[in-house]
Amino acid sequence: MLVVVDILDIPSSPSTILTINRFLIDYFGQPPPTKSAMTTVVEQLKTMAHSLSLLITALDDVPCTESELHTLDTIAATIQDASLAIQKKTGSFRPPRNDRVWKSCEEQRSKAQSTIATLLAEGKLQNASVFKRNIATIYRGPSSSELDSRDVKRRKGVTQRRCHRLQQLCPDSIVSWAVSYPPSSWGGGNIADDIFDCLVEDIQPNDTKAWPATVRELLVKIRDAEIQDCPGLDQLVETPNDPSRYTADENYKSAPARAIVTAPGAPADEHREMKQMFSSAPAARVLQLPQPFREAVQNSMLWKWERGQGRGTTGTMATLFPKDATQDVSFTIRCGHNDGYRLNDTYGFKLAFSS
Questions:
Q1: Quick check: pTM over 0.85?
Q2: Cβ atoms of 185 and 221 closer than 8 Å
Q3: What local confidence, expressed as pLDDT, does residue 146 receive?
């Protein structure tokens, strides 16, 4: 039986600290240092994670009986549940993607990416009113009335929770969402939770966006005229403070690209002989990959097999070094079959050869 404790809501009372100390002593055989409850928990979890990674690595060369394998399965489930609890508290948790749901919202995602690309390319908002209404909805929530029926209150409650979810995103994600989806398209009762989750996941960028100056100007107007004393909106307007994040509209069109001088023969055409390959990275390093690569790797058959075997390392990532030190090094990942096609679509890959 696993009891998952909401560690961020633990009060720092003497009785609570004593309970935590007893729990940790049972696991580590020694009392933790006398500090605040939260600091103690974090430090002991860090120690536990380090010890666990060493033990898992040792499993690779140790044969197991059927009984031991069954016990390891139980331990793995416990560790997985604990990991999910921590990820939910840190905000890094992403629910497993449902291919059916992902496919069903493909048109919405495609339109959103097109809208964002047009804004970045042309420097003008296609529909400023949608942007303003979205920002107002996200930071003020839906309006309420004593005359609202029970069903209306329920739907507005869903919208309020979604507003809170959107507020937790990075500034680029919030702006991307606000220019892409009208409030009427994502409020409670308009789309299911799983569709909303997919759209939120997809809207999170893999790089920093250089928004046109008109975006910040509108945000400032909304803050000063409509939504005052809102820390979240203040942060969205002022973060980051680097003015290079916003490009002046009159200078928005990029200058002609410089000609790139290359040596005869493209590097891709060079005859490359491999000298070294590096792999078997700690499995936890996969969590440091940005999306969509992290999820793509975790959907690979190799990753799932490694986790099923309890391995502490992974072969899903590798670097290939050529014999010629002047040639490029290749960094490769293994990903799920369907995820490979999604990466093709996301980054616009073209078919190079087929067999």
A1: no
A2: no
A3: 85
pLDDT category of residue 35 using cuts at 50, 70 and 90: low
Side chain identity at 62, as an amino acid letter?
A: V
Return the structure tokens found at 316.
Answer: 């899903």
More confident residue, 32 or 218: 218
Determine how many CB atoms are found less than 10 A away from the CB of residue 224: 10
What pLDDT digit, counting tens, does each position of 303-319 carry? 888 888 888 888 899 88
- Tens digits of residue pLDDT in 63-114: 888 888 888 888 888 888 888 888 777 766 665 556 778 888 889 988 998 8
Q: DSSP labels for 289-335?
A: SPTTHHHHHHTSHHHHHHHHTT-SEESSEEEEEESSTTSPPEEEE--
**DSSP one-letter code for 60:** T
Angle between the N-to-C axes of helices 171-180 and 128-140, in degrees from 0 to 180, rounded to the nearest 10: 120
Partners of 330 in beta bridges:
320
CA distances from 282 to 21, 52, 245, 318 (A): 30, 12, 35, 12
Going by the DSSP 8-state scheme, the letter that residue 211 receives in this structure is: E
Tokens, residue 141: 């929530």
- Among 10-14, 160-164, 222-226, 340-344, the minimum mean pLDDT is found in 10-14
The amino acid at 258: R
Q: Which two tokens stand for residue 23?
A: 């729990």
The Cα 34–Cα 37 span in angstroms is 9
How far from 350 is each of 110, 269, 291, 343, 346, CA to CA, in Å?
18, 17, 21, 11, 11
User: How far apart, in whole angstroms, are the C-alpha atoms of residue 86 and residue 326?
Assistant: 44
| Residue 69 near residue 310, CB atoms below 8 Å | no
Structure tokens at 41: 């928990």
On the 0-12 / 13-18 / 19+ scale of CB atoms within 10 A, 123 is buried
Place of tokens 């003020």: 140
